[in-house]
Amino acid sequence: MPGTDRSSSSKPIRVFLVDDQNILRAAFRSLLASKGEIEVVGDSGDAREAILRIEEVRPDVVLLDISMPGLSGLDAIAPMRKAHKRVRILMLTHHEGESFVEQAMRAGADGYLSKDSNPAELMLAIQAVCDGRPYLSPKVSSGIVSGMRQSDAGSSLVRSRVESLTQREREVFQLLALGKSNKEVARDLEMSLGTAKKHRENLQRKLDCHSSAELARLAIREGLLDPS
Length: 228
Prior knowledge:
Elements: E1 13-18, H1 22-33, E2 38-44, H2 47-57, E3 61-64, H3 73-83, E4 88-93, H4 98-107, E5 111-114, H5 119-130, E6 135-136, H6 138-150, H7 153-163, H8 167-177, H9 182-188, H10 193-207, H11 212-221
Helix pairs in contact: 2-3, 3-4, 8-10, 8-11, 9-10
């Protein structure tokens, strides 16, 4: 797809939606389906399922949320690219902070758009990333500038700790933040109980969090969990 200008092509842009909120997914599907230049080829509320589906349907663009149970959008970027190397990934999320944008773009996202953006900007962003041009919405850009002005050494330290986690540690982190026990983590991630316990000990040490409540607050702040 690099170097291909889809704006002059008669073929619609094939889009796949990934968002765990059913109502939002249905709304985006309806909005995009009304555009003749867009074909929605699938959607999913689970990132792991989405990776398998993307490998099958091979969309041009994936619209990807960040905060989802099981596997976050940030951690799904690399597997999605592995499943379909030519896919373009546009983050579509309510998280507008500098940390989220940095992590997404570093992981391989092609664009970043706020869910508060208007429909015209969504279409513009989809076309841009499909044509191989990175897209960062003005609303997100202004949030980054504001965040840079307000950032301090403490927040940078926490961010570096979270970003140092492996993908597996992030998965365990999410489950522990949800209040799941070591046994439940071991079952959900198909690992031994001893491995789950070791991950918990390592995470508490790395993140300086010593309870499920502290893990939950940090996970929400880092966009790995929705506060609702």
